[in-house]
């Protein structure tokens, strides 16, 4: 059996250097934009939520930030989530997607959801979206990508199944 060397850390102990930052803290220049495209299943991994946190951070750096949800990503914008009632949090973190999207939009971020994925794949109605999420035509997913290219915007794309 291997011998473990060292003391177990206690709550509140620091085990890595959180103060050393290697890159400049970049802030957006006037008019810079960012697009975060997400084709990811909510709650099937951390990618969707981490991208929401990243989008919020990008927005706070001054970028005009848009989040484009398509495929299973539209499920992240469901206003009908909750248990035992809509909006109720069944366990800590259960409503983190809804809460983070709300924070992102309250701070000026824009969220779009593909109507094709909503209706054809998941039977979602536009009224099932979180207030402030804008439904969009399925052809707008590509055109948003092309718009971002023309604008020279920062683009993050995530695909998970």
From TrEMBL:
Organism annotation: Pseudonocardia broussonetiae
Matches recorded under Gene3D superfamilies: DsrEFH-like
NCBIfam families with a match to the protein in the record: MSMEG_0572_fam (TIGR04044)
Alphabetical list of InterPro entries matching this protein: DsrEFH-like, MSMEG0572, Sulphur_relay_DsrE/F-like
Name assigned to this protein: MSMEG_0572 family nitrogen starvation response protein
Pfam families associated with the record: DsrE (PF02635)
TM region positions: none
